[in-house]
């Protein structure tokens, strides 16, 4: 009798859980769709509001009136605004972001070429931020008000206050020009550019796949300095937030109870407090990563890093609106994807959210 009554109860519980998951998934998808529509709307109207004539960017300032009009019709600018927006959405969902005036290549191909460089730089910068920032924040929280805490605060202050371009220039002057510890600007030395075949777009991975270890270390030597500059920003943000989360957790009742029971301080910090702070901390790390993906323009410019930030800067200076809007759209999509992934992982990791 007990087994018979337990089976429907278990089935009902499983059904209720599936309904909750389905409801949560539908809400997430609805949010993504609305956000994507808003992103498309914003990028479309940016192109119409900015005082740059896309037709002149194509035909030039000295084009004849008939040439100008023909180009205007070809670009679809003679159609009503709502129709232009519909055409724009259709092109975006087919992967057509237009043609770059500056490079004469499809914007999609340009972004495929430059985005791996930014991804490589932001990933290593975030990894540096996590490996240094999390332990530094924990150390500051455990030793609140002591010299360890003061060091963490100084690191955070430097990371937030000192301009990135100044740090980059000083780093180049010291570690490249004076000491010669690292390679200079650029992504890889000229001698290796045609030797390493592009597969993933990430030079270090491509060099490793081909067994070109000299090229691998050359690429790493070019990467480490700009990654450290970006990593300092990430360390400042992550250490500050880790400190805040850990101070909050160390004041909770379960920590006091664990200490009363005789649990070691190491276990209290790493097994209990950090575990409960992990979910919001993961969100902070994801936000830091997204910030480095879209906010590395100055770093890429200083180090002549051929990434998305430098590509967008050159496009904007040359009134290449297809490239600017295409890059902006890609960054927005990455933001949405990382945010969605972070939310899903948070739900899986934290039973309270589920």
Helical content, roughly?
over 70%
Q: Indicate the CATH architecture of the largest domain.
A: Orthogonal Bundle
Element order: H for helix, E for strand = HHHHHHHHHHHHHH
Distance between the termini: 32 Å
Q: What is the name of the CATH class of the largest domain?
A: Mainly Alpha
Strand content: under 5%
**Secondary structure category:** mainly alpha
DSSP summary, beta strand count: 0
- CATH homologous superfamily assignment of the largest domain: MetI-like
What's the domain count?
A: 2
**Unreliable sequence segments:** none
Concise account of the structure shown:
With 354 residues, the chain is an all-alpha fold. The chain has 14 helices and no strands. The chain folds into 2 domains: 92 residues; 241 residues, Orthogonal Bundle (MetI-like fold), CATH 1.10.3720.
Task: Give a verbal description of the structure.
The protein has 14 helices and no strands. Helix 1 (2-49) runs antiparallel to helix 14 (321-349), helix 5 (107-142) crosses helix 14 (321-349) and helix 10 (253-260) packs antiparallel against helix 11. With 354 residues, the chain is mainly α. The protein has two domains: 2-93; 109-349, MetI-like fold. The protein has helices at 2-49, 54-59, 65-74, 81-93, 107-142, 147-161, 164-178, 203-210, 213-250, 253-260, 265-294, 297-302, 308-317, 321-349.
């Amino acid at each position: 009798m007990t087994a018979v009554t337990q089976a429907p109860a278990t089935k009902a519980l499983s059904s209720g859980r599936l309904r909750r998951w389905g409801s949560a998934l539908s809400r997430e998808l609805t949010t993504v769709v609305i956000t994507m529509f808003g992103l498309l709307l914003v990028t479309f109207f940016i192109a119409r509001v900015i005082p740059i004539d896309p037709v002149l960017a194509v035909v030039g300032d000295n084009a004849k009136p008939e040439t100008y009009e023909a180009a205007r019709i070809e670009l679809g600018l003679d159609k009503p605004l709502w129709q232009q927006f519909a055409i724009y959405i259709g092109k975006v969902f087919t992967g057509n972001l237009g043609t770059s005036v500056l490079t004469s290549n499809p914007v999609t191909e340009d972004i495929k070429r430059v985005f791996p460089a930014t991804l490589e730089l932001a990933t290593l910068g975030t990894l540096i931020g996590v490996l240094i920032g999390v332990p530094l924040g924990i150390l500051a929280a455990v030793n609140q008000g002591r010299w360890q805490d003061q060091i963490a605060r100084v690191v955070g202050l430097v990371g937030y206050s000192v301009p990135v371009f100044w740090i980059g220039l000083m780093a180049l002057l010291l570690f490249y020009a004076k000491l010669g510890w690292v390679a200079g600007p650029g992504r890889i030395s000229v001698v290796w550019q045609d030797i390493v075949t592009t597969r993933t777009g990430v030079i270090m991975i491509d060099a490793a796949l081909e067994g070109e270890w000299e090229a691998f270390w050359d690429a790493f030597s070019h990467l480490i300095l700009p990654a450290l500059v970006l990593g300092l920003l990430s360390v400042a943000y992550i250490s500050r937030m880790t400190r805040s989360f850990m101070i909050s957790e160390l004041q909770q009742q379960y920590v006091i109870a664990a200490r009363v029971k005789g649990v070691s301080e190491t276990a209290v910090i790493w097994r209990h407090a950090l575990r409960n702070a992990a979910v919001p901390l993961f969100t902070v790390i994801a936000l830091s990563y997204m910030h480095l993906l879209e906010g590395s323009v100055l770093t890429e410019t200083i180090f002549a890093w051929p990434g998305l930030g430098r590509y967008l800067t050159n496009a904007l200076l040359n009134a290449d609106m297809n490239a600017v809007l295409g890059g902006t759209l890609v960054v927005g999509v990455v933001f949405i994807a990382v945010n969605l992934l972070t939310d899903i992982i948070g739900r899986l990791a934290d039973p309270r959210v589920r």
